[in-house]
Amino acid sequence: MSNANQPPLRLMPAPDAATVELLYRDFGDVLIPLDKLRVQYFRHLNEKSLLSEIVSGRIQLPITTLHASRKAMKFVHIRHIAALIDIRAYKADEELPRPHHETPDKYD
Known about the structure:
Blueprint: H1 17-27, E1 31-33, H2 34-41, H3 47-56, E2 75-77, H4 78-95
Antiparallel strand pairs: 1-2
Helix pairs in contact: 1-4
């Protein structure tokens, strides 16, 4: 599979070391098979739709293989999934409504 059609992942911010460590404990390797990743985090998508979402850029994950064959097993590097998780968490925090104080505290 060629990576030419995939948009580059921007590691902004870089993945948190704790996220990488926890993923390593779950998956046991730095290359996570796409199928295992789908089962763990993208259960709502089948194999074909997950690939479609990645190729279209809706899910920003570069896919790698260890062989040039079209049938080669597809992997995601642990730092890329960690970065995606952290980025989504940061965005969720930014989108969370902040409480507004209508009047500042007054000291008497």
